[in-house]
Every structure is written in structure tokens, then in C-alpha cells.
Amino acid sequence: MYELFKNLGSWLISGDQWSGTDGIAHRLAEHLEYSLFATLIAAAIALPLGLLIGHTGKGAFLAINLASFGRALPTVGLVVLVFLVSGLSLWSVYVALVVLAVPAIVTNTYAGMSAVDPEVKDAARGQGMRGHQVLFQVEIPLALPLIMTGLRLSLIQVVSTATIAAYVSFGGLGRYVFDGLAQRDLVQVLGGAALVAIVAVVLDLALAGLQRYLFRHRRTAAH
Predict the structure, then answer these.
(1) How far apart are CA 6 and CA 177, in angstroms?
(2) Cα–Cα–Cα angle for 207, 108, 37, rounded to 5 degrees
(3) Are the beta carbons of 5 and 13 closer than 8 angstroms?
(4) How confident is the model at residue 55 (pLDDT cuts 50, 70, 90)?
(5) Can you tell me the distance from the alpha carbon of 63 to that of 107, in angstroms, rounded to the nearest whole number?
(6) Burial of 220 (0-12, 13-18, 19+ CB in 10 A)
(7) Who's near 112: CB < 8 A, 6+ residues apart?
(8) Contact, 221 vs 209, CB < 8 A?
(9) How many CB atoms lie within 10 A of CB 69?
(10) How far apart are the first and last CA of the chain?
């Protein structure tokens, strides 16, 4: 076991391992590209949906159940299905990652909007605010902590699952996992898995820090 971890450490810090198109730097850039792009697409779909059902109170049952259905879909199976339909295209990966990311954003956005005190909304309307003003000036600011939590959860899920790109012959850090399995190279498999875990943890900590900063700043401004 000691020898295995020693070899893993050597693999991770080797200069040769970080250079070239098969190097860690390049694979990391690919992995982040897949993850960030998929999360942005998911946010563009899920945020308006969550805000709409949270603001109007209509369609919540259908939207939440569809989101739960999307969460239950097997990601690899979905990748293979889209891959068979669309051919050799990164869209098979993006579709699967977006389907994975949408549920957390929808449910957290809806939960944040639903948690806004109805009396606060009534008071805003009583001051002459129209529906869109109540939404953007009252509901969204109050729901923002949960909305950001949904985005954070989705990004971490996508980063952890983006290894599936390598399953259909694309890049990313999953390349080390699948190539290592094919070559029976345990060090490479562990290296790929460790890198994915490190990226997920670093992004989670960064987003958590940003979230704390933003809302601490808002609380300070309120005082």
C-alpha cells in the first residue's frame, strides 16, 4: 500500500505528466470546459423554470417530479443513448451532464422562492410594486442563498460525473481512469480519481467562500 501511494505521488508531481496533450494540465482544462459549459446550459434552463414556478406557484408538482425523474436517469446509459442517436459528438456528454445538473437547480430555486415570507411579498405589492418588480427586487434577493446552493451542488455533481466523456472517447480527467482500467494501471486510475476529487473539493470550497463573502457583504450593507 505504501508503495502504491508513493507511486501515485510520483505520478501526480512528475513534470512529464503535466505536459503535452495527454498531460494533466490539458486534461484538467478539458474537464473544466465540459463541466462549466454543461452547468451554464443547465442554469439557463433550470433557473427560469424554478423562478417561474416559485413566483406563480403553478406547475410545481410537474416540474419537481420531472426534475426527480432526470436525477434518476442513469448518466452513462443516457450518454450511450444520445451517442448512438447523434453519433460521435460531445453533445452526448453535454446532454447527460445537463440532465444531471438541472434537478438540483430547479428544486433549490423553487425552495428558495417558496421560503420567501408571503407577508413580505404582500407588503411589496402594497407599496405599488408590480409582479416583475416583486420578483426581481424582493423574491430573488431573498431566495438567492438557496439558489446559489443549487448551482453549487449542480457544479460539483457535474465535475464528479464529467469523467463519462472519456467513456465515449473524449478527454477530461476521466481519460486517466478509463485508460488506466484498460491498461490495468492502478496508479493511473487512482491518479485520475484523485484529481477529480481534488477539483471537486477546490471548486466547492471556492464557491462556498464566495457565497459566504457575498452574503456577509449584503448583511453588512443592510446594517
Answers:
(1) 18
(2) 55
(3) no
(4) confident
(5) 9
(6) exposed
(7) 54, 142, 143, 144, 145, 146, 147, 150
(8) no
(9) 11
(10) 55
C-alpha grid cell, residue 56: 406563480
User: What's the per-residue H, E or C state across the chain?
Assistant: CHHHHHHHHHHHHCHHHHCCCCCHHHHHHHHHHHHHHHHHHHHHHHHHHHHHHHHHCCCHHHHHHHHHHHHHCCHHHHHHHHHHHHCCCCHHHHHHHHHHHHHHHHHHHHHHHHCCCHHHHHHHHHCCCCHHHHHHHHHHHHHHHHHHHHHHHHHHHHHHHHHHHHHHCCCCCHHHHHHHHHHCCHHHHHHHHHHHHHHHHHHHHHHHHHHHHHHHHHHHHHC
Residue among 35, 7, 1 at smallest CA distance from 180? 7
Q: Is the pLDDT of residue 218 over 70?
A: no
Question: What is the Cα–Cα distance from 131 to 141, expressed in whole angstroms?
Answer: 15
pLDDT of res. 72: 66
Rounded CA-CA distance 113/52 in Å is 9
Q: How confident is the model at residue 70 (pLDDT cuts 50, 70, 90)?
A: low
Rounded Cα distance between 176 and 161, Å, is 14
Write down the pTM of the prediction.
0.87
Torsion (CA) 147, 153, 154, 156 in degrees, nearest 10: 140
